[in-house]
Amino acid sequence: MNRNGTIKIHLDSLLAASGLSRNKFCQRAEIQRSQLNGYLNNTVTRLDTDVLARICQALGCSIADLLEYVPPEE
After folding, report:
1. What is the pTM of this model?
2. 35: which of 10, 31, 54, 69 fits an S-S bond (Cβ 3.0–4.6 Å)?
3. What is the distance between the alpha carbons of residues 74 and 67, in angstroms, rounded to a whole number?
4. pLDDT tens column, 25-69
5. Contact 47/66 with Cβ under 8 angstroms?
6. Under a CB-based contact definition with an 8 Å cutoff, are residues 7 and 71 in contact?
């Protein structure tokens, strides 16, 4: 964890709860499978607001459901 904290992406649990397959989700959200893997594994370094909006739309969730700020450990 870095000194400013991190952003945790909860796409894995939201996708599981939606019942959509990864392929169907990629079609609905108009994202590539490699992009999906980056968001699922929390390995993206720059969040794209357009992609985040498409993810939220495809899953019917809010940005607060998708992203969580984790403060740095003291």
Report:
1. 0.89
2. 31
3. 22
4. 999 999 999 999 999 999 998 999 999 999 999 999 999 999 999
5. no
6. no
Q: Which residues of 30-46 are buried (b: 16+ CB within 10 A; e: fewer)?
A: ebeeebbebbeeeeeee
C-beta separation of 63 from 56 below 8 A: yes
Give the pair of three-digit tokens for residue 73: 């450990």
Q: Letter for the amino acid at 69?
A: Y
Q: What amino acid is encoded at 65 in this protein?
A: D
Question: What 3 state SS string does the chain have?
Answer: CCCCCEEEECHHHHHHHHCCCHHHHHHHHCCCHHHHHHHHCCCCCCCCHHHHHHHHHHHCCCHHHHEEEECCCC
